[in-house]
Design brief:
The complex is a heterodimer of chains A (317) and B (94). Helices cover 69% and strands 2% of the residues of chain A. The longest helix of chain A is centred in the middle third of the chain and has 29 residues. With 94 residues, chain B is an alpha+beta fold. Chain B has a domain of 55 residues: Phenylacetic acid degradation B (Ubiquitin-like (UB roll), Roll). Classes of the chains: A mainly alpha (317), B alpha+beta (94). At the A-B interface, helix 4, helix 7 and helix 13 of A face strand 2 and helix 1 of B. Chain B: Pfam families: PaaB.
Chain lengths: 317, 94
C-alpha cells in the first residue's frame, strides 16, 4: 500500500472513531492502534491474573466461611476477567502463548499495585474497597472504548466488579465496628494501601506519554488526574463513614473547585515499583512462572486425552 | 510442546425465547472441555440456560473488505421497506 493510501485509510479510521463507531478485529486499523491495544489489553489481563495472588494468600485464613466463599468467588472472578481480556486481545492476532510468555519473561507489565504485600486480613478489606474501587473508576469509561471486543469484555467485567468493592468495604466495616485492635488493623491497612491506590491510576497527565493518542482512540476517556480526583472525592466520605483517617495531612475540601486538595504523591516509589523494585515483584512473577510450569502436566494430559479420544472415534467409524 | 490449544467461540442463550449470542472465546482441547470452561468463565451468575461452543476454525466469516459488494445489492432496493409506498394520510394504521 502506498503512503497516500494509508493516509486516506487512517483518515477514514479516525473519522469512524470520532463518530463513535466501533472497530472490530478484522477491520483495517493502523498498526500503532493494534500494537497499543495489544499492550493495554494484555496489561489489563495480566493485572487480573497477577491480582489473584495477593488475595489468594488469604483464602485459607479467612476468618469465617462467609468471608471465605466471598473471597474465593472474587478471586475466581479475577481469573474470569483475565480470560475475557486475553480472548479480546487475541482477536488482534497475538497468541495466548505469546501473551503468557511476555508476562513470565517480565517484558509485559501489570498493575503496580499487586507488588505490595498483603500482611493482615484487613488488607482483603482495603484491596476490595480501594483497589477495586480505583479499578472501577478506571474501567467504567472503557465500556465505551473504540475497540469492540475490549469494550464488550469491559461491560462484563464492570457488572461483576461492584460485588468486589462491596465485599471489601463490608470487611472494613466489620473491623471498624469491632475491637480497638481490629479497628487499628483497618487503619493500618488504609495507611498502607491509600497511596499505592492513588498511584494505580497512573502517572500525572504531565508525565503520561500515551494520554493524548489514547484519548483520540477513546482508549481513555478521562485523564489519569481526572480519574484520581474522582476516586479521592468518592472515597473520602466512605473513609469518614468507617471512622478511619486518610493518611494525608494535606487532604482538604476545596469549596471553590468542589473537590478535595491532596498531598504530593511519591512518584519515585511508583516508578521503582513499575521498574520491578517493589516489595513483591519477584515473588509475584516467580509464583506465576511456577504455576505455569507446574501446570504443564495438566495441559499435556488434556492434549493426550483429546488425541486419544479422536483416534478412538476414528476407529469406531 | 508449544502447539496452541485450540480456540473455541462461546454462544449463550440467556433465557428461553432468546437466541444464543456470542459472548467470547476460550481455549480447550476438545468440545467437552470447552463446554466446562465456558460454564466456568461465562456463566458464573446464571447468565445462561444453554451454551454452544464451536471451534473457531470452523467458522466462515465474511471479510470487511468485501462488505461493499456483499451488502450493496440490498441498499438500492428501497421498495423492500414499508416507507417506500405512498398512501393517503386518511389511512391511519397500515
Amino acid at each position: 500500500m502506498s503512503e497516500a493510501e494509508i493516509k486516506s485509510l487512517e483518515a477514514q479510521f479516525d473519522a469512524k472513531i470520532a463518530r463513535d463507531e466501533k472497530i472490530e478485529p478484522k477491520d483495517w486499523m493502523p498498526e500503532k492502534y493494534r500494537k497499543t491495544h495489544i499492550r493495554q489489553i494484555s496489561q489489563h489481563a495480566h493485572s487480573e491474573i497477577v491480582g489473584m495472588l495477593p488475595e489468594g494468600n488469604w483464602i485459607t485464613r479467612a476468618p469465617s466461611l462467609r468471608r471465605k466463599v466471598a473471597l474465593l468467588a472474587k478471586v475466581q472472578d479475577e481469573a474470569g476477567h483475565g480470560l475475557y481480556l486475553y480472548s479480546a486481545c487475541e482477536t488482534l492476532g497475538v497468541t495466548r502463548e505469546q501473551l503468557y510468555e511476555d508476562l513470565h519473561s517480565g517484558k509485559a507489565k501489570y498493575s503496580s499495585i499487586f507488588n505490595y504485600p498483603t500482611m493482615t486480613w484487613a488488607d482483603m478489606g482495603a484491596i476490595g474497597w480501594l483497589v477495586d474501587g480505583a479499578a472501577i473508576i478506571n474501567q467504567v469509561p472503557l465500556c465505551s472504548t473504540s475497540f469492540g471486543p475490549y469494550a464488550r469484555a469491559m461491560v462484563r467485567v464492570c457488572k461483576e466488579e461492584s460485588f468486589h468493592q462491596r465485599q471489601g468495604y463490608e470487611i472494613m466495616l466489620s473491623l471498624c465496628n469491632g475491637s480497638e485492635e481490629q479497628k487499628e488493623m483497618a487503619q493500618d491497612a488504609l495507611n498502607r494501601w491509600w497511596w499505592p491506590s492513588l498511584m494505580m491510576l497512573g502517572p500525572t497527565d504531565a508525565a503520561s506519554t500515551h494520554t493524548e493518542q489514547s484519548m483520540k482512540w477513546k482508549l481513555k476517556r478521562k485523564t489519569n488526574d481526572e480519574l484520581r480526583q474522582q476516586f479521592i472525592d468518592q472515597t473520602v466520605p466512605q473513609a469518614e463513614l468507617l471512622g478511619l483517617t486518610i493518611p494525608d495531612p494535606d487532604l482538604k475540601w476545596n469549596d471553590e473547585k468542589g473537590s478535595y486538595d491532596f498531598g504530593e504523591i511519591d512518584w519515585d516509589e511508583f516508578w521503582q515499583v513499575v521498574k520491578g523494585h517493589g516489595p513483591m515483584n519477584k515473588k509475584r512473577l516467580d509464583d506465576r512462572r511456577n504455576a505455569w510450569e507446574n501446570g504443564a502436566w495438566v495441559r499435556e494430559a488434556a492434549t493426550a486425552y483429546a488425541a486419544k479420544q479422536k483416534t478412538q472415534t476414528a476407529q469406531a467409524i | 510442546m508449544s502447539q496452541e490449544i485450540p480456540l473455541w467461540e462461546v454462544f449463550i442463550r440467556s433465557k428461553n425465547g432468546l437466541e444464543h449470542r456470542h459472548c467470547g472465546s476460550l481455549h480447550a482441547e476438545d468440545a467437552e472441555m470447552a463446554m466446562n470452561n465456558a460454564r466456568d468463565v461465562y456463566t458464573r451468575r446464571n447468565e445462561g440456560v444453554s451454551i454452544w461452543v464451536v471451534e473457531s476454525k470452523n467458522i466462515t466469516a465474511s471479510s470487511p473488505d468485501d462488505s461493499g459488494e456483499l451488502f450493496e445489492p440490498a441498499s438500492d432496493k428501497v421498495y423492500r421497506h414499508p416507507t417506500f409506498y405512498e398512501l393517503p394520510e386518511e389511512l391511519k394504521h397500515m
